[in-house]
Amino acid sequence: MPAEIDFGNAEQLLPLIVSETLSRGDRLEVLVLDLTPTDFMDSQGVRLINDVRHRLRPGARMRLVARPDGLASRVLELTGLRRDVPVYDNIAEALAS
Fold first, then answer.
1. What is the pTM of this model?
2. Please, which contacts does 70-75 make with residues 24 or more away whose CB atoms are closer than 8 Å?
């Protein structure tokens, strides 16, 4: 994911991510979005994650990776999205879950 997720790019990211998930078809079991490079994320980032989550095929799971001390992690906590989508410190943990 990019360094910033906001009004300026969230709308363009959605079709890219959805296209990638659809190209995997029934083989997609887990989608991991890596937010570790993301230094800024506003409500549009939360909306993007929710929109992607609701467009996944039934049975597919979503996992997020975010730096524990990063802004993205804080936004996920404050908005409550962390309750709905598991957040991990690194990609290996997310894939192993």
1. 0.89
2. 70/35, 70/36, 70/38, 70/39, 71/38, 71/39, 71/40, 71/41, 72/5, 72/35, 72/38, 72/39, 72/41, 72/45, 73/35, 75/41, 75/42, 75/45, 75/46
